[in-house]
Structure formats: structure tokens, C-alpha cells
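fyi for ur records
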Amino acid sequence: MVMSLLARASSIYDAALTLIYPQACSVCGSSVEHRADGVACATCWDETRIFDRDELMCWKCGTHAPGKVPDEKRHTVRCHRCDSEYFTAARACGAYEGALRASVLSLKSKPYVPTRLAQLIFETQQLEPLSTATRIMPVPLHSDRLRERGFNQAAILGRALAGLADLPLDESSLVRTAHTERHRAGMDARGRRESVEKAFEVRHPRMVQTERILLIDDVFTSGATVSACANVLIAAGAESVYVLTIARTI
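which gave:
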């Protein structure tokens, strides 16, 4: 009864908010009717590719794989392009398109995680092997970039997830010591890797020793940044390093 009343009140509030402060969908331009959807309308969310837990993927990097295997052998599937990466496993909520792309771009200028996105991140984290993580760490920004932007979007995501997953959030152990240039459009995988190869450092090794770290960031592109982070975390004694992002390029 109480939940029904709350849902009705929320619906009325959404309707009033849409009428008084209409917000255009960042994808298609139509009206966003539910504040929980953030910057994209429900239709664009429905049309965005969200990864299905039943889809076959490389167990390590999360890229989708052809064919089928029994459930008990899913952990053996490898694309082998990620063999040299330092992270243990990486997953994304969906493809970098539509509502997810709009949400990522919005988060770079506005430190807010809408309910729908937060729930999607949580649901992805609850799947194996990310569900075994013991500590959340956002991919850090260099102090110069942090002052420029005013906040770290990965940290905003980490705070939202920590509350839902009931996991500790560590924003101080992993730091970015090199202010590298932004990855330029068209930069190849080698260029991306070289730009971040020595950009990170673990300041508090005792905080990461024997932990199963969940690195969180907005987009997985080449994997160079999260792999560089994982490298120093493993060297500092972390048992494993998982990666979770809102989206990945495909």
C-alpha cells in the first residue's frame, strides 16, 4: 500500500515536473517524462543496446563472442586479444550508443547519476565475476584535470554503486601522477597504452593488499587506462582487479 502510494506520488511529480520544466531527450529531442531516466527518454533507453547476461562474451574483457557454449564453460571463452591486459575481467552495462552515450556525456559536465543508470550499473556488478569484488575504486583524474572539471565522474559513479552494493569506496589509494594528453580520436591502441603506461601509482598499498578491486569508469575503449591501473594495483598486492564501465565501444 505504501509503495503504491509512493509510486503514484512519484508519477504525479514526474508529470508536474515535465509540464513546468520540460526536458528534451539528448538523443532524439522528445520529452523526458521520468526524472529517473536522466537525459534520455524511455524510448531511447529501450532502443539502446544493453548487454544481456545470456550473451556469450570473452570472460576476460567482455567483448562479445560468436557461438554458444554450455553455461558451465562460459568462463573458458577468450578472444585472446586481451591476453596481455593486466585486469582480471571487464564488463560494461551496454554499448556506447543512444541513452548510454548521452548519459556518459552528461556525467562529464554534471555530477549526477540518475536512478535508471545507477540501477543498471548495480545489476551489472552483481553478475559474476564482478560480484566477488571487495572494494570499489574509481579510475582517478590527475589533480590538474580534477581542478579543471571540478569532480571525477568515475568517483561519482563509484559513490552511487558503493551505496547500492554495500561495498567500501576507496578514492585515495590509487592516484594519477602524470597529466597525460587526452586520447585523441583515431589514436591507435599502442598510442593509448603508451600515453598511460606510467601514469598511475598506489599511495596506500596496505589498503589494496589481498583485495579484489572493482575499478569503475565511464567508458571502456581500448582498455589501456584500466589495464595501466590494474598493473600497479596487482603489483601492490591486490588479489584481482575487475573493471566496470557504463558502456564500451564496439
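The chain is about 35% helix and 15% strand. thats all i got for now
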